[in-house]
């Protein structure tokens, strides 16, 4: 009798083991899909996953050891959608490798669209495959072959979604008449010009759709002619702030009354208002306002005039809520000409106000 009970118990145990194995087997495709989705959602589309029983085997290449570790953690923490309570029941085996590339800091990517629709790309990507993908995406988005200005392969991307954000920025840049975007780590700025206020409104909302830290690092400065500035976000890069000022200045000038420090013309004030808005986006940096003159008149008077004009511009920006203690004004007189003073065109180029962005001490 005892032997019969023993035999029945053994049989029941074997049946339980078989049932458990069957259930585990049925979970395998679902678990593989769950891990695949988790990797894809975090920018690791290039990592392969294959289930061996309850073991998820990861293979492929990452851009760095840190990204390799991140992929393992993501796979390990993936939930089992077909399990009770979505509890994890799998393990992870690492068969990945990572490229021994130089690490770039800061990790940047830039695109410039000119008024003729030409597009120039530069910066860093994590692999040659990524470079090819970016160029292909740019060709599709802008409907033109982009100019590759030394796109380089390097480690240092903040995470696996950097290029996903790059493509989003390219899509928005394509809507502008001309402009650029600048990425530096998680931070990014889209700037430029559009005649459509609706385009500016849409781009100002882009940050809300960006993943993770990219959302808080987003800024936009879109100029709509004859409309007040309406910018969003803080620009956190010194070089990007300088480029923003230079771009705004490339299309406009500050005009003064002849021989005086009085600003004249509605266009001058409109330009200064846009500069003030940009300066307030660059709240972490100092701004030096430099005045220059042509060589007409006495050198001493030109020195005074350049100082007075720089001070006038500084004071106007302060009136537009730019912190005065972040700004300095300096005059150079006629000492630093940009063109010949022998003709009116050259003298007009030499009468100018420059802006230099530096990190606050």
UniProtKB/TrEMBL annotation:
Record keyword Nucleotide-binding present: no
The OmpA-like domain, residue ranges: 243-361
Gene source species: Litorimonas cladophorae
Compartments, as annotated in UniProt: Cell outer membrane
InterPro entries (alphabetical): Bact_OuterMem_StrucFunc (IPR050330), BON_dom (IPR007055), OMP_bac (IPR006664), OmpA-like (IPR006665), OmpA-like_sf (IPR036737)
The protein's name: OmpA-like domain-containing protein
CDD domains hit by this protein: OmpA_C-like
Pfam families reported in the protein's UniProt record: BON (PF04972), OmpA (PF00691)
UniProt keyword terms in alphabetical order: Cell outer membrane, Membrane
GO CC entries: cell outer membrane
Keyword Membrane: yes
